[in-house]
Amino acid sequence: MWPVDAHGPRTYAEFEAFVAGAAGRLLHVAVLLTAEPEAEPAAARRLLAGALARTYAQWRRVRRDDPYDHTRQELCAAFARTGWRHHGGTGPLAPLGPVERLVLVLRVYEGVAEEVTAAQLGLPVERVRALCTRAVAAVRSQEAA
Amino acid sequence: MSPPDRKEDQVRRLLEGPRPVVPAGLAASAAARGDRLLRRRRTLRRVGWALLAAAAVAFAVWASLTRPWEVPPSGVSPPLEGW
């Protein structure tokens, strides 16, 4: 239920439908980034809640293009701001640094184009390519061990 | 664009894993928080515009009272000639 909605009930219904469809995948992205245990991913939930709130605040503009894209971008930006807090962990990306995790998740798991990833992270395309190769190698060697 | 990579596919399968459980009421709490955010932004914007309008009015009043574009009356009279 929404307390005195600034948008109106129809917006809330649209937003609720979007969250019902996308929250699972977005939370998985957040958990991969924070490398937390799946049972109690507190930081990932916090990141997702903040990203969804900012998406809702701009819903009128966001719904015209892609709410999923927008929320993922907010999520990644929030993780990039606080990434230094999340080193270590238990997930498959635990040995990687924050930027490597971002590049790997966006490029490999989400399938975002190299150029778009580079633009969103504010890095040159060559750097994204190098980071991705290094991250893939690190994750594979850790799996092999 | 690079062709589909065997190593990347392997890592992708690794990342696929089980989905974590989405907490109940996520949409409602996010919407409530988004509303607060929106309201705060709106208030800030309104305060900003109000300040701007007040400044414009104050400037107009000051300008119409002091008329800074007018040359102040000269204290020196022109030389008296040809009488």
UniProtKB/TrEMBL annotation, chain A:
<dbReference type="Pfam" id="PF04545">
    <property type="entry name" value="Sigma70_r4"/>
</dbReference>
<dbReference type="InterPro" id="IPR013324">
    <property type="entry name" value="RNA_pol_sigma_r3/r4-like"/>
</dbReference>
<feature type="domain" description="RNA polymerase sigma-70 region 4">
    <location>
        <begin position="94"/>
        <end position="140"/>
    </location>
</feature>
<dbReference type="InterPro" id="IPR036388">
    <property type="entry name" value="WH-like_DNA-bd_sf"/>
</dbReference>
<dbReference type="InterPro" id="IPR007630">
    <property type="entry name" value="RNA_pol_sigma70_r4"/>
</dbReference>
<protein>
    <submittedName>
        <fullName>RNA polymerase</fullName>
    </submittedName>
</protein>
UniProtKB/TrEMBL annotation, chain B:
<keyword id="KW-0472">Membrane</keyword>
<keyword id="KW-0812">Transmembrane</keyword>
<protein>
    <submittedName>
        <fullName>Uncharacterized protein</fullName>
    </submittedName>
</protein>
<keyword id="KW-1133">Transmembrane helix</keyword>
<feature type="transmembrane region" description="Helical">
    <location>
        <begin position="47"/>
        <end position="65"/>
    </location>
</feature>
